[in-house]
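Task: fold both queries, return tokens.
Query 1:
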Amino acid sequence: MSASSDNTQNTAVAPVAAATINSAQKKVVFDDPHAGVGGLQEAEVTRVRTLRGGWRWALVAATAATILLCINQQFTLRFFIGYTQLNTEYFYLLIALMLPFTFLIFPGSEKAPLDRIPWYDIALFIATFASAIWLMMNIRKAAALGWEFAGAPTPVIAGGLVMWAVLMEALRRTGGWSLLLCVLPFTLYPLFAESSWLGPFRGTQSTLDQATAYHVLSGESLLGIPIQAFADTVIGFLVFGTALMMTGAGKFFINIAFALCGTFRGGAAKVCIFASGLLGMMSGSIISNVLTAGTMTIPVMKKSGFRASYAAAIEACASTGAVLAPPVMGATAFVIAQFLNVSYAEVAVAAVIPAALYYLGLFMQVDSYAARHNLAGIPRSELPRVWDTVKEGWYYIFVIALLVVMLLYFKRESHAPFYATVLLLILNQLFSKDTRWTVATISKFLEVNGRTFV
């Protein structure tokens, strides 16, 4: 979509993110950036596979089931009539639905093909799904009989060993060798805890069966705080962030930033900081922030006189602040809330001042750089008008207000993103002609969420 200061109507264009100068109208044209730039997608930046055909529809179906399970759990809708689902069963259902796709989306090595799925990745997919379902079927009995301490039957231990192995491989593929080498020694520690070379770090040693049972059946390892935070809170906020981007919020936030900050000294870089901050408040994702705001603001910064390397550095710093900026922060914030046994709203409120200081520091640095190099702002005639931009996306303000009220006043952090998403979709269907959702949009929405969950 395009936005100019003398035209409030959106023009349908190819879904390519860019920030260019329209030589005919002398206006800055801001296209909807969510699809990437010049055909470049997030999958290409992070070198992951784009699923097609039956695998894509499997991901869409698994994502829909994941969201419905989360809604059922958070709102106590009792989808399973006559059956009370344990939290641990719910966690394993989510693992069974999402974890197997790690091996389809993330290739095993740099040489692994991206245009097809090798047989060994399909084998890992099946092994992960089967072990998760097997453990889910036994987790209720494990809780009743205390298998995590008393010892589990051999078939359950076998399923646990498979889960342990595929988890480590999934960690390597998504986080790299450095993260795996940080985590793996701690998962193996119980097996050699009494070794003399550990010195003051010696502890009570466990057998392989005992360690496996503890990892996959207790609430302290695989089913610990991270999966609890993901299942209870993170899913809803990820759904909300994706819905915002797919209703055109990225374009709205970036145009607001250009309208408010574009004319200042070094305005292009300040727009970059402001836009990345606004987008980060809603997405909490560094990569999507760079792809959304960076592909627009970096070309404008270069045209305004900023060095290419400096423009890229400003975008990187501004996008990194996404994990600090409430109300939708990085995943670590949800883990902090779960670990400290406080509400996510308390964590978000505590992050307001650090996030504000972070972006204030960036503003001051950019302003000093612009002053030293005599870098002017963008002429007002080339920028969107504030009022025109607000008229196009006023309902985003109401949606964000609802989210904040639900978080701070009603203290319903697990419900807030779902209410905000429903309101957003209703208002978008009623008041937006260009971004109304179709069946194809819903399918894409589920696919994007699925990749994010994985």
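Query 1 returned. Query 2:
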Amino acid sequence: MAVSIPPPPSRRSLPPRPIKRSLPSLPRSSLALALPINVSLPVPPSMFSTPVANSTSSFSPN
């Protein structure tokens, strides 16, 4: 019980402070890094997967 009690308050107290300070402090850095990273990760695999799959399929039958 002692271990379960500290985690909840600690996690709730930490997120609100760093999040509020991080947003106003580094709005451009946070957005610039968050946008490219989030978009870059899901975009490359999806776009690359599609062309690669199509290319392989086209070449396979040919």
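Both queries returned. Flag for query 2: The two ends are 65 Å apart (CA to CA).
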